[in-house]
Design brief:
74% helix, Rna Polymerase Sigma Factor, Chain: A, 2 domains, Arc Repressor Mutant, subunit A, 188 residues, extended, mainly alpha, 10 helices
Length: 188
């Protein structure tokens, strides 16, 4: 989307809807992993969008949008979990309180950085670059150029089974090299 940041800053609701559509699933998965409730996750995400909209002037480039949304949502999750701990304290539910405290510690841990789409792309490209030839070319044609296995086989004068073998091996290799990013890659 052309000049997305300037459209957001100027209050363009269509650009805002684009942002919401792009990030909503990732935000939902993030929130759900901490608050364990779809309804609460949705509420926190809506609050996140409101906060983003109210403070949209601080966004100065498109790459900042995702991390900014996640930072807002992280703080919303923290507030929610802290409130739940107070509720649990009065209801005397100890096991749930420990779970909530663990999630708060995880969210407050400054050593955990929100991984950006750019970081994931760099790691993925670096891992792909380590694939041996012709596996690398086959994987790129299959996943990035979206060619069918038969097309790749025809182009490379190989059997379809050989192409399938190389793609399977490439995926296995990439999984092992990107295990730290694996949960994030499915979102991008």
């Amino acid at each position: 989307m052309k000049d997305l940041v300037s459209k957001i800053i100027s209050g363009d609701e269509e650009a805002f809807e684009y942002i919401k559509n792009k990030w909503n699933l990732r935000l939902k998965i993030f929130a759900r992993s901490y608050v364990r409730s779809d309804d609460v996750s949705e509420d926190l995400i809506q609050d996140t969008y409101i906060k983003f909209w109210e403070s949209r002037a601080v966004v100065n480039n498109e790459k900042m949008i995702g991390p900014y949304l996640f930072t807002i949502l992280k703080n919303k999750c923290l507030d929610y979990l802290k409130h739940k701990i107070i509720e649990q304290k009065y209801n005397n539910v100890t096991s749930e309180r420990y779970y909530l405290k663990a999630n708060i510690y995880a969210l407050e841990d400054r050593s955990i950085n929100i991984i950006t789409e750019e970081q994931i792309k760099k790691a993925l490209l670096k891992a792909i670059d380590k694939l041996p030839q012709p596996r690398k070319d086959i994987f790129i044609m299959s996943r990035f150029k979206e060619m069918k296995n038969a097309e790749i086989a025809n182009r490379m004068s190989l059997s379809v089974k050989t192409i399938e073998y190389h793609i399977t091996k490439a995926i296995s290799f990439l999984r092992s090299k990107l295990e730290d990013y694996y949960n994030y890659i499915i979102f991008f």
